[in-house]
Amino acid sequence: MSRSFAVVTDSTSDLPGEWRDRYEIEVVPLKVLFGKETFRDQVDMTSDEFFTRLAASSSLPTTSAPSPGEFAEVYRRLAEDHDGCISIHIGSRLSATAEAARVGAESVEGFKVNVIDSQSVSMPIAFLCRVAAESATLEEATHAVEERAAKCRVLALLDTLRYLEMGGRLSRAQAMIGTMLDLKPLLLVSENAEIKPVDRVRTRSRAIQRMIEFFRSEQPVEYVAVMHAQAQEDAERIAADLRADLPGQEITIGQIGCVLGTHTGPRALGIVYIKE
After folding, report:
1. Could you give the CA distance from residue 247 to residue 137 in angstroms, rounded to a whole number?
2. What's the whole-model pTM score?
């Protein structure tokens, strides 16, 4: 590509490999820690390997942001053949990644780095990276991304409450009651990375239908994708429904990465989008 500026993101963007190559986007990995073992997200451990290990683990892994030094190293390398950089990251309410990027950028003199808090997680960040990469200048990219950040949405369906309980976000009693009733929580991550409960639905099939109904009420959208955690068939079915509703709209299917998967657990589903 003949772009004068670089585009950087982190591994929570769930950036498709094809987009990474086509748009020459640099991805800085977060880390997942199982006990004393540390793995770089999507570098040392794939999503499938992560969920296999998570299912066998009695305790929840922890996650950590890249260090400012890791970001500085990436920016210094990019400064060799770019005039500047836009660095788009997971919402600052969810992770310290954007702050680490800012600190890292400050240590690289003479190279302009615009760090953007996406206010979101998962593939809405990848959409923002694509918007940036298709822009003509760094200023245009920054404006276009900032304009869309507050319109990013993640509509998530969890298959189990176990991982919310293990992460301390739910009491054991609440988790037990929910599991006994086969309740599937539907959550919305909206502007400022605020997580709001949308509904709790009995049975997975009803919850999937409710998720599609909610998404229909959010139209029109500029970008949309279906995300899953080892639930490819369900994701394909949801995408087929959305394609019938939105002929001509590109609808990508992607797998949730290790960091987000720590909190969702396996078989989670998501419709992620940027509102118009």
Report:
1. 31
2. 0.91
